[in-house]
Amino acid sequence: MMRSKFLHFMTALAALPLSACRLLLPPATRPLRKLQFEPQGSKAMELVLLLPGRLSPPEEFVQFGIVDLIQKERPLARIVAPDLHMGYYMRGLADTCLHEEIIGPAKKQGLRVTIIGVSMGGLGALTYSLRFPGEVDEMLLLSPFVGDKELLAEIEQAGGLEKWDSPVGTPRSKAEALQKMWIEMKRQWLSRSGPPFPIALAVGKSDRLLASNRLFARSILKPDQLIEIEGGHDWACWKQGAALLLSNSKG
């Protein structure tokens, strides 16, 4: 897909609603501010990239035990948690920054790349993988935001993603950007019998995004790639989900 179209795509995605405390967006500085953890006493063999939710700083991955969990499950991983806040999405820089500053260099070093995306970070993981095919080796999603109710209802009413279609060209709004993402998933993945890398998803049974995650799973994933657990849209549930996804993953 052409670069200019994807920049419009990511800029439009940034129209996600903001809380009052983030209306004044922080600047999208380069290079990305990030937390990075190298393996103890050995060379990194893989990259685990942690993409935060809409209002979460990367420090929450440390605070709520996700970094510790990954270090135990994948001791040879370099763990990177960038401060990929809404300012980057608003300016169409999110996937470019990830590619140029983190994922691209890791791939040149021969590292396998796993993205763990939480809520909005799950959306960022999906859009990155669609723009840069072949760069992601594994994706673990924790309650990803995948679309508004209107779009998801439209896909359901059409009889599922295989039967649904939309004439959106270059997206000029949030709604059109999300439509474009689903179109790209259908074009790039369903036409080839699924994504070219494993995706697994964990979501709480009380999560407000449960219905949308179920639709995404029915459309894109194999039945055993969706895990539903007790909990809501919060770190307690996400940590439990991350533990299950990592333990089930073949790495």
Question: Can you tag this structure with a few keywords?
Answer:
single chain; 251 residues; alpha/beta; Rossmann fold; seven-stranded mixed beta sheet; 10 helices; 15% strand
Structure description:
With 251 residues, the protein is an alpha/beta fold. It has a single domain, classed as Rossmann fold (3-Layer(aba) Sandwich), CATH 3.40.50. Strands 1-3-2-4-5-6-7 form a seven-stranded mixed β-sheet, with helices on both faces.
Fraction of residues in helix = 40-55%
Number of strands: 7
The named CATH superfamily: Alpha/Beta hydrolase fold, catalytic domain
Strand order of the largest sheet: 1-3-2-4-5-6-7
Q: What would you say the CATH architecture is?
A: 3-Layer(aba) Sandwich
What is the overall pLDDT average? Answer: 90
Strand content: 15-25%
* Poorly predicted ranges: 1-7, 14-23
Global Rg: 17 Å
Structural class designation: alpha/beta
Task: Summarize, please.
The chain has helices at residues 3-13, 59-63, 66-73, 86-90, 94-108, 120-131, 149-157, 174-188, 210-220, 235-248; strands at 34-37, 46-51, 77-82, 112-118, 138-142, 199-204, 226-229.
Detail the topology: elements first, then pairings.
Layout: H1 3-13, E1 34-37, E2 46-51, H2 59-63, H3 66-73, E3 77-82, H4 86-90, H5 94-108, E4 112-118, H6 120-131, E5 138-142, H7 149-157, H8 174-188, E6 199-204, H9 210-220, E7 226-229, H10 235-248
Parallel strand pairs: 2-3, 2-4, 4-5, 5-6, 6-7
Antiparallel strand pairs: 1-3
